[in-house]
């Protein structure tokens, strides 16, 4: 769980210049999107309603998803 800010690390061999992170509510609405400048990033999605969200990280042809709880 997090109160809002968190860090995302992508293995340097997977990181591509067009890498991005997206957050979606459980209803499927996009609530945040940011392009990543390097393989280690601090993310601050702003004020979000507490609850469960889906993180989707896309780097080149690869895509990873993980759930996150905002308190």
Overview of this structure, please?
The protein is mainly β. It is 0% helix and 54% strand. The strands form 2 sheets. The protein has a 4-stranded antiparallel sheet with strand order 3-2-5-6, with no helix packed on it. The chain starts with 5 loop residues before the first strand and ends with a strand. The relative contact order is 0.34. The model has no long low-confidence stretch (mean pLDDT 91).
Instruction: Give the class from helix and strand content and strand pairing.
Output: mainly beta
Biggest β-sheet, characterized?
4 strands, antiparallel
Question: What's the β-strand tally?
Answer: 6
Tell me, briefly, the overall form.
globular
- Distance between the first and last residues' Cα: 6 Å
| Helical amount | under 10%
Number of helices: 0
- Low-pLDDT windows of residues: none
Physical arrangement of strands within the biggest beta sheet: 3-2-5-6
Order of helices and strands: EEEEEE
What is the mean predicted local confidence, pLDDT?
91
Q: Radius of gyration, Cα only, in angstroms?
A: 12 Å
Strand content: over 45%
Structure at a glance:
The protein is mainly beta and about 70 residues long.
Give the arrangement of secondary structure elements.
Blueprint (H helix, E strand, L loop, with lengths): L5 E4 L10 E6 L4 E6 L4 E4 L7 E9 L2 E9 L1
Antiparallel strand pairs: 1-4, 2-3, 2-5, 5-6
Fill in the keyword field for this structure.
4-stranded antiparallel β-sheet, two-stranded antiparallel ribbon, 71 residues, mainly beta, 6 strands, globular
């Amino acid at each position: 769980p997090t109160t809002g800010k968190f860090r995302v690390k992508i293995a340097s061999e997977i990181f591509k210049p067009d890498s991005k992170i997206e957050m979606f509510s459980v209803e499927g609405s996009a609530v945040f999107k940011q392009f990543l400048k390097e393989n280690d990033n601090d993310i601050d999605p702003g004020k979000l309603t507490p609850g469960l969200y889906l993180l989707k990280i896309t780097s080149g042809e690869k895509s990873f998803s993980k759930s996150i709880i905002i308190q």
